[in-house]
Design goal:
The chain is α+β, with helices and mostly antiparallel strands. It has four helices and six strands, in the order H-E-E-E-E-H-H-E-E-H. Strands 1-2-3-4-6-5 form a six-stranded antiparallel sheet, covered by helices on one side.
Length: 174
């Protein structure tokens, strides 16, 4: 019994270090997140553009690593969202829910209105997660965060953000 507990702890630690290594390899800065009951470990990561993701392993689920991101409207957005007609907001929330479901996110919308939208993806570690799968899941969380941000900006009739992603070594015109 003691050996199985020791092996499980070693596997949990190995998963944490693997996640840290993969995030650092793709250029993210990684720090340990706060300790919390029921959480084996938590990492917070930020890329050079300032986008962030969290990676968490629950003590009760050593076979699963959760990746997540969130959007919390700030600046003038909370006031603008609160001023929207109730029917417009209700329709937007339905559109947002269906879009996040279509993209296969687990999510939570905290209200009233939109105070925060949290997105989550589960990676089943016992199935032999590869680096490419992990990186794809990190990118999917980032895309989900952008989806929420851009849907809010579109709802508020703001112009699209400028293109900031440079495709190094790729020119679709030539």
């Amino acid at each position: 019994m003691e050996d199985s507990v020791s092996n499980e702890r070693a596997e949990v630690k190995a998963a944490q270090e693997q996640v840290r290594t993969w995030l650092e390899e793709i250029g993210w800065t990684v720090e340990d997140g706060p300790a919390e009951e029921g959480i084996a470990w938590r990492l917070r990561a930020r890329n050079p553009a300032g986008q962030s993701v969290a990676a968490v392993q629950q003590s009760s689920r050593p076979d699963v690593v959760l990746l997540g991101g969130s959007v919390a409207p700030s600046g003038p957005h909370p006031g603008k969202l609160a001023a929207l007609d109730a029917k417009v907001m209700r329709e937007f929330l339905w559109q947002l829910r269906f879009e996040l479901l279509r993209q296969r996110y687990q999510f939570q919308i905290q209200g009233p209105g939109i105070q925060r939208v949290a997105l989550k993806r589960a990676l089943f570690w016992d199935e032999g997660v590869r680096r490419s799968q992990f990186v794809a899941a990190v990118e999917e969380i980032h895309h989900g965060v952008l989806t929420v941000q851009w849907m809010i900006q579109r709802l508020l009739d703001e112009p699209p953000p400028p293109e900031t992603v440079k495709l190094v070594g790729f020119d679709p015109v030539n």
